[in-house]
Amino acid sequence: MRSSLAPAIRVLHSVPRDNWYRGYIMVLTFLIYTSYHLSRKPISVVKSQLNRNCSALPNPPANLSENDTTWCDWAPFDQPNYKELLGSLDTSFLVAYAIGMFFSGIFGERLPLRYYLSGGMVLCGVFTALLGLGYYWEVHGLWYYILFQTLNGLVQTTGWPSVVSCMGNWFGKGKRGFIMGIWNSHTAVGNILGSLIAGVFVSTAWGLSFIVPGIIIGSLGVVCFFFLIEYPEDIGCSPPIQNAGEKDDLENIQVMNSSTENIFTNQAGDTMEDPGIPQETIEHPQAISFWGALKIPGVVEFSLCLLFAKLVSYTFLYWLPLYISKVAHFDPQKAGDMSTLFDAGGIIGGILAGAISDLINGRAVTCCVMLILTAPMLFIYNHFGQTDLSVTIAMLIICGMLVNGPYSLITTAVSADLGTHESLHGNAKALSTVTAIIDGSGSIGAALGPALASVLSSHSWNYVFYMLITSDLLACVFLLRLVYKEIKEMCSCCRKARGDSLTLKHSLSGIAE
To answer: Which of 44, 68, 151, 418 is the most exposed place for a label (fewest CB within 10 A)?
Structure first.
């Protein structure tokens, strides 16, 4: 007697082939960009080890002079202006990242993403590891660390436009905020893993805090080369519908009907390409120009908003462990571990922002509300966040939610929406350039924030938080036009729905009579 199909196999068999591959791409790109953030996070943890309070440490050297208070510091960061020197490391990375980002999207559209992405990851691994080797080679020249921070910043730009473009090739527009919110948690996951890995080695051999993440991202670069699939059409999967909405439904149906001549469905429900058409005949859309991408409605506003939103986020990224160490008097490892709570809150904030924006169909409104709530929360955290451990934990999670929510939404769902805007007539090839423009503008703010923090923190940490609050409010201002437009559209939809309801009610009344 023949046995029935195993339940687990039956479930696996019931999932369409396209969905399996989309899930696979989502997981792979998640891991890829997690490794990018994992490799750029250690510098913020190692900072507190490069310059410490040596007088509080036990077992000083026997031949130590009484006036030597910097014996435990790593030259050249043992100088009184160590904050400016540490800030120069952030600035060199972020300025290179901001400049490179505007060109990265252009290259990413014109080169195979698999080669571009995997090559960038391997180079990131090399440059990150070379930073850590400075510990073992006993390099004390500032130029060495600035050089490899700059090179690392340039090659890090290969990541974001590439993974967002790949996701845009595989996923449609419906409920993209929620999907992208979950997927974008790779940023926070990478920050958390980077902090934890760096924290393991920072107090004993801080060079490994860079070398281990470098090996991880380099290894994943090799995985990317062998396993990344750029387009669903390349393996016979059906492409996503890029434009959602009632006005596009007819166009989508026409496209689907016209494509049925080249597509057939097998008995298992898998959508496959017509074998009569050779794989080599697949034509991918043409790239868009830089100025053409700028003309897409909303690109300029969201780019300027992200400039200030990312300024706030990256100031926390690079200076939060040092702030916790100096203000709350934690040791470097504990300060790095505590800073992961901010990133944990960022995961929640990114998912919430995506889900809410999908629900109300308002990206700008969601960002603006979260930005408005962020300003008073930053003030409260600075003045009361270190009074108690439980308060510190709660405030870090809340601040992470509010700071990273808009940043996550703009860099993922908003970029994907604009990169597949209806004005492009289905040309999703623009996605890489649009993403690079928006994130490149944000990277200017990311470079300014830590640089300003290095100067302002020398006077008072209060000045740093005043700068963050001001930047947060400016980010909100640049969205006001789009917020007004979205609210107007929401009101129009409500009036239309109310009118349809009254019409239906009158029709039913007439039938009843």
So the answer is: 68
